[in-house]
Design goal:
single chain; 114 residues; alpha+beta; 2 domains; two-stranded antiparallel sheet; two-stranded antiparallel ribbon; 3 helices; 54% helix; binds zinc ion; Zn-dependent protease with chaperone function
């Protein structure tokens, strides 16, 4: 388990990207089986299914994005999307929370300074 917290939407997006590449690689490998139409078709279908899968994942990201909350990151000042109670900033991986009970004391102190 990694200690580094990263943004959930970013994680899913990289998963979709990996699926596209895996699909292309599998379809490419299918070209080595040109002598066997059965294997070539099989590789093409598996590769195609990976690409279809990534399209579904992208669609899923779109649905999740509508459920996420847009916030301005206090660390880098950019607008990021928070999914669930706690999530990380998409740009600087700063841990963010929407739940007041989970906010650290350090954050409260900074907030009350001015
Ligand atoms: Zn940030």
């Amino acid at each position: 388990m990694s200690l580094k917290y990263s943004n959930k939407i970013n994680k899913i997006r990289s998963l979709a990207l990996i699926l596209v590449f895996v699909g292309i690689i599998i379809m490419y490998l299918g070209l080595f089986f040109q002598t066997s139409p059965l294997f070539m078709t099989l590789f093409m279908i598996i590769g195609f299914l990976c690409i279809v899968g990534s399209t579904i994942v992208y669609f899923w990201i779109g649905m999740l994005s509508t459920k996420s909350v847009k916030v301005i990151c206090p660390t880098c000042g950019k607008e990021t999307k928070v999914l669930g109670r706690v999530d990380a900033c998409m740009f600087c991986d700063e841990a963010l929370t929407l739940d007041k009970n989970l906010e650290g004391e350090a954050f409260d102190e900074n907030y009350n300074k001015k």
